[in-house]
Design goal:
Length: 154
């Protein structure tokens, strides 16, 4: 496999890959199924492990491809991390490594957050990982220099 190295530890020993009908697949342990290995899915699977290790977020609290409805439109959050009571705590948006994290990317995740009202957002392209706290009162983002642990976020 010739995917660009990511800005995180090497998780190749924790990621399951296979070739099925001439197609590379990656196992999504969150959804419990094999998926086509795309550049974005490569980032997602690696970043989930990275976030789980860095934030110490339980894998059981993470859901992938979560459908939400906003202004009558159905949208999909790439991942959501929930608190101990099943309330959304963090929305995560993944991009391929060649996609820059721009204001437009933040606008996308902010749109999802208009419905969910979560206190934290993460955006990652595998090379850059940004966590920010949403300051609803002042309508701004506070970018974290150091990521707090899951238990500190709740």
């Amino acid at each position: 496999m010739n995917y660009e190295p990511l800005n995180m530890p090497d998780y190749s020993d924790r990621i399951r890959l296979r070739k099925q009908d001439e197609q590379l697949q990656i196992f999504d342990s969150i959804r419990g199924k094999w998926l086509v290995l795309t550049p974005e899915e490569w980032v997602r699977q690696n970043t989930i492990i990275y976030i789980s290790d860095t934030l110490e977020a339980p894998i059981a609290r993470i859901a992938n491809e979560v459908g939400i409805t906003y202004n009558g439109l159905t949208k999909r959050c790439d991942s959501i991390i929930y608190d101990d009571y099943g309330r959304p705590l963090i929305i995560i948006e993944y991009k391929r490594t060649d996609v820059q994290i721009t204001q437009r990317v933040f606008d996308q995740i902010a749109t999802y957050n208009m419905q969910l009202q979560v206190p934290y957002l993460i955006v990652s392209n595998g090379l850059q990982h940004i966590l920010c706290k949403v300051d609803f009162e002042n309508k701004k983002y506070i970018f974290a220099q150091q990521w707090p642990k899951y238990n500190e976020l709740k």
